[in-house]
Amino acid sequence: MPRLSFRKFHVTMSFRAPLPFVYKWCTNYTPQDFRYGGEKGERRILKRNSKHVVFENLYDVGKGWGWERHVVTLKPPNSWHSYGLGNHSESFLDYKLRDLPNGRTKLDMRWKSRPGMLSEGRRPSKHSIEEYVTRLWRRRAKFVERDFKRKNRLKCFDDRLVFQRSKKSERFPHHRGKT
Length: 179
Known about the structure:
Low-confidence stretches: 157-179
Number of domains: 1
Structural class: alpha+beta
Strand order of the largest sheet: 1-7-6-5-4-3-2
CATH class: Alpha Beta
């Protein structure tokens, strides 16, 4: 049976968080990543360094298991590329981040994909695939924004503690260095 051709896809998403935070969050691949998109599956990180991440995903496809391996090339500060090969698909994905006004960030995700050797049935429409990926990234965006708010809240709290400590030592100079 001849292999089907690649189809091209494109999805954009914006985050209420600055680009450096979004880049770090998106490229910090973890075994828990499936839950951010509301998916079920397992992820195993095989390799991680400053230039590459290699991971495998295992997930239920209804009539058995889907497996895929991704080799991610990190291109700081604003892009990364992933090549994925599995029993149900082969894909090349490019991610680019761009600053937006008011500390926001735009993700531009372009990829091409084709069914793998074990894929069965009709291919879903381009529109339905892009819609599905958009839903996944909307869910992930909520976690990105939540984590950014938490980070800022903790930083603000730490700054207040430092400020309060310095004011106290100014009012009570005899307390400096004494317990």
